[in-house]
Amino acid sequence: MDFSAIVARQIGADERRGFPVHFGSDAERHDQLVRDLVGLIGEIGEFANELKKVGLRLNNPKYTGPSLGEAAPHLREELADAAIYLFRLSTILGGDLERDILSKMDINDDRYRKLER
Amino acid sequence: MDFSAIVARQIGADERRGFPVHFGSDAERHDQLVRDLVGLIGEIGEFANELKKVGLRLNNPKYTGPSLGEAAPHLREELADAAIYLFRLSTILGGDLERDILSKMDINDDRYRKLER
Amino acid sequence: MDFSAIVARQIGADERRGFPVHFGSDAERHDQLVRDLVGLIGEIGEFANELKKVGLRLNNPKYTGPSLGEAAPHLREELADAAIYLFRLSTILGGDLERDILSKMDINDDRYRKLER
Amino acid sequence: MDFSAIVARQIGADERRGFPVHFGSDAERHDQLVRDLVGLIGEIGEFANELKKVGLRLNNPKYTGPSLGEAAPHLREELADAAIYLFRLSTILGGDLERDILSKMDINDDRYRKLER
């Protein structure tokens, strides 16, 4: 599915649910960015906590945490949640995340050419 | 552009540059996930630092930071960098980020129906 | 209680529990720093998730989250957990966190003198 | 130096510089917590970025990043900055970080007794 269509689906749902992305002032826009950044950190923190448990089990035979295979569905769900916050943050900033990612890939193609094998 | 095609472009470039996503053991897979999580945190930290400066200027007339409009291109670039790390983390986990995002949106459609106006 | 004595209590307990802070190579030292950074992100993520719920309740009358007073004990516990990770990270780096904090306060005293009222 | 005296020094300096920790409403208190959380994420992100460079050099002979020894002073400074944000967040929450850390260490002493060697 088209990247920008996925973003548009999320933003439309957010607006119906009372999580706006359009604001009348930079102060309001800033405050929403900060709130969504807090949400993003929460999702990445959940990813980190689950990955920590996997690492403890790999390194410590006494620890009864999940294997990486067992944790993978949860870890993937957290990445999806994090992506949804990126969609919101980008839209509040007036950005086009698809275009911004493709532009950054072009920059990286130049920057890392010397590392290519 | 198709979401999954964008992910595939990034992963192909990473592999040519010596940043692998396929591993022979869960221990190696875990170690790369941890390294990419560190990279993700770095990008989100840069986003946070720039957003902090915007907030200080909005709240403190003595502070000479960027306006939100001035900071937006930098902020958007950090979001693109963060998205690229999500592509890597998802792929290392054997995930399909496009599908995982769409599945999560379906779940959220059910969960948040009561908030819809 | 003395800052450095609190750090020493934690590091002593960690070593008894098999969470080392001394290593024979930079590669091992780096790997433990990365693991502890993941743990730190997990704690800050829990703080962020709880604070997000407080914000949703403050901004959204339909949302049944905790008040700030109700959330404060949990939030404070996450800060304590985060501090404990800072103790570990500092010690693995051969640092003296008390001294490093006091040095940074001296630097900030110079830097922010113009903001003082 | 006493842990709580170090916290008090920082909070006193913050108040002189116009970074308050006392507020008249939970809404204002929440907004400041969110702003300080953003600051904390920024510091941890700088730590992560520096640690990432160390890891790239350790794992990739083509990469010209700092050694762990070269990066350690910068990494330690970021930890001090992060600690200062924890002081602020704890104080805004009406907490006593020293007491909260010691309480958490007591809890961990019980919880991890079975891991002790």
Structure, explained:
- The structure is a homotetramer of 117-residue chains.
- Chain A is mostly helical and 117 residues long.
- Chain A has a single domain, classed as Helix Hairpins (Orthogonal Bundle).
- Chain A contains four helices and no strands.
- In chain A, 50% of the residues are buried.
- The interface between A and B is large, with 59 and 59 residues.
Q: Summary?
A:
Chains A, B, C, D: This is NTP pyrophosphohydrolase MazG putative catalytic core domain-containing protein. The structure is a homotetramer of 117-residue chains. The first copy, chain A, has 117 residues and is mainly α.
How are the SSEs ordered, and which strands pair?
4 copies of one chain form a homotetramer.
Chain A: H1 3-16, H2 26-59, H3 68-92, H4 97-111
Helix pairs in contact in A: 2-3
Q: Name the CATH class of chain A.
A: Mainly Alpha
Number of helices of chain A: 4
Number of strands of chain A: 0
What is the fold-level CATH name, i.e. the topology of chain A?
Helix Hairpins
Most extensive chain contact?
A-B, 59 and 59 residues
- Average pLDDT number of chain A: 94
Order of helices and strands of chain A: HHHH
Q: What's the overall geometry of chain A? A: globular
The share of residues in helices of chain A is: over 70%
- Low-pLDDT residue spans of chain A: none
Number of domains of chain A: 1
CATH-scheme architecture of chain A: Orthogonal Bundle
Largest sheet of chain A: none
Protein name (chains A, B, C, D): NTP pyrophosphohydrolase MazG putative catalytic core domain-containing protein
Organism (chains A, B, C, D): Mesorhizobium zhangyense
